[in-house]
Amino acid sequence: MGFLGHLVESRLASLYRIIGELPSMSRPMYETIHTGLPSSEHGIVANSAVRLSTKPNIFQAVKSAAKVTAAVAYYWVSGLYNRAL
Questions:
Q1: Distance, CA of 17 to CA of 28 (rounded, Å)
Q2: How much of the chain, in percent, has pLDDT values that exceed 70?
Q3: What span, in angstroms and rounded, lies between the C-alpha atoms of 41 and 57?
Q4: Domain residue spans of the chain
Q5: Exposed, middle or buried by CB within 10 Å (0-12, 13-18, 19+), for 47?
Q6: What pLDDT score does 72 carry?
Q7: Which residue has the higher pLDDT, 51 or 84?
Q8: Which of 14, 56, 66, 81 is the most buried (most CB within 10 A)?
Q9: What is the CA radius of gyration of the chain?
């Protein structure tokens, strides 16, 4: 990735270091994003874990504040927060 390194050195690109959560699979990451918890706490550790979220999440918080939510998202979001598919 020498060319990308050159772009960063020339200030024509940026390099950001991020800390990710594991496992880096879709369903566990959706649960992490919407609950703020790591996989070890929310228990969704694989895409094959098909169940509703059992932890407080953003959708519950908004609903308890008498607001309405909507999501244009992959069906796994619905599977976690609406009904398990």
A1: 21
A2: 99
A3: 13
A4: 23-81
A5: middle
A6: 84
A7: 51
A8: 81
A9: 17
DSSP state of 13: S
Q: Tell me what the mean pLDDT of segment 22-26 comes to.
A: 90
Q: What is the pLDDT of residues 28-52, one digit of tens each?
A: 999 999 999 999 999 999 999 999 9
CA distance 83 to 53: 9
Does a cis peptide bond (omega within 30 degrees of 0) precede residue 38?
no
Cα 13 to Cα 1, 3, 6, 8, 17, distances in angstroms: 13, 11, 9, 5, 13
Euclidean distance between CA atoms 69 and 47, whole angstroms: 24
CA distances from 43 to 7, 9, 29, 38, 39 (A): 40, 41, 11, 8, 5
